[in-house]
Amino acid sequence: MEKTSHQWSPPIWILSLGAGLAPFAVTLVAPAIPSMAIDLNADSNIIQLVLTTLLLSIAFGQLIAGPLSDRLGRKPLFFGGAVAYCLAGFGAALSHTIEGIIFFRVIQGLGAAATVAMSRS
């Protein structure tokens, strides 16, 4: 029996990593929710908005990313989403208020939505 080796091209690797941004963004913050509530002196219900707004922005962002990619192209939207994801991650990490973290997580969710939608198209 002969084994075939699959050689994936670099774009396939990049698209695969882009598809993993959304699940990574969700699971990254979930264990930190209790310590965030303590550090930010915020109610746990408000802290859970960090995760909820991220999920909603990923879901609705994909609805926007599809038609937007038809106008702008898939490659610019994919890389723009990846840059937005990274910059918003830095913004959330440097934020000292829960409102700032929620804002940056929404931006991060929109960036992840663009990469996920473009990796599937």
Could you explain the architecture of this structure?
The longest helix has 29 residues, at 44-72. The chain is globular and about 60 Å long. Helices cover 82% and strands 0% of the residues. It has a single domain, classed as MFS general substrate transporter like domains (Growth Hormone, Chain: A, Up-down Bundle), CATH 1.20.1250. It is mostly helical and 121 residues long.
Order of helical and strand elements:
HHHHHH
- CATH homologous superfamily identity: MFS general substrate transporter like domains
Known CATH architecture: Up-down Bundle
Instruction: Could you tell me the CATH topology label.
Output: Growth Hormone, Chain: A
How many domains comprise the coordinates? 1
Structural descriptors:
121 residues; mainly alpha; Growth Hormone, Chain: A; 82% helix; globular
Question: Layout of SSEs?
Answer:
Layout: H1 10-19, H2 21-29, H3 33-39, H4 44-72, H5 74-94, H6 98-120
